[in-house]
Amino acid sequence: MGPTAAGKTDLAIELAKQFPVEIISVDSALVYRGLNIGTAKPNPEILQDYPHHLVDIVDPVEPYSAGSFREDALRLMTEITARGNIPLLVGGTMLYFKALQQGLADLPAADSKIREKLDADIAERGLTYLHDQLKQVDPTSAARIHINDPQRIQRALEVYLITGKSMTELTKESVQSLPYNVIKIIISPQDRAILHQRIADRYNNMMMMGFIDEVKGLFSRSDCHANLPAIRAVGYRQVWAYLEGEYDQETLIEKAIIATRQMAKRQLTWLRAQQDGVWFDSGSGLPVDQVVSYIKQELSAI
Fold first, then answer.
1. Are residues 44 and 137 in the same domain?
2. What is the pTM of this model?
3. CATH number of the CATH domain containing 166
4. Residue 168: which domain range?
5. Quick check: helix, strand or coil at residue 63?
């Protein structure tokens, strides 16, 4: 685990060279076909040599949830273990890691009438109003969900309006243990400035690789729109807004880098709460030897 641009994929490949592992991607954007450049998806050569489960499995217009991930990941972990290999889960979607470790609440299906009312509230009063409403009924979720994340704010309010219980309450009722011995590795540059520079460099490199053209391909599809989870992924939603004429390319890059840094901050906040996680500094290069040594030590104790 680690924030974006920490070096997770590169480390996973190095570990795959030394241990009998199969890689499972824990990334809510890598599941989508056609989202390649903006997700920093490993190139086809790497995926051929080091296959990643749960990459390129759904179309951008198809739904894929944390519940879908948990079901798929548990099935894959069973199959991988039966083959005598070790599941190596790699990614930065912390909700997916949480779903896998703790299970998910039995949340109600979406209600179109409530969604329409919440959409109208956003249009009339703004996201701050909706976020304040969430603070009143579910302060824990409100503290976790960013004020500029309409999808999750609406969902948390919708759950409360349908069930009369907060998402926090329902989640506590459904904690499930993970039936595996877990070695939890967290990598990140200790120096936040290094991470910020990597994020900026990577985004600028994505632009040079043709990221805008990649999103144009999605933009031209009649079935794609700005509210799809795939299009709301960090980086993609900023390019989409640029293509809709909301701002120029310079502003696009600035907004995307800021949004990615904010995402990394949220990831780090969640990771710091992982009391059984062991941190490794990737600021001056991949800590391959240290991680390999730690894994061997942990495996010998199991």
1. no
2. 0.82
3. 1.10.20.140
4. 112-172
5. coil
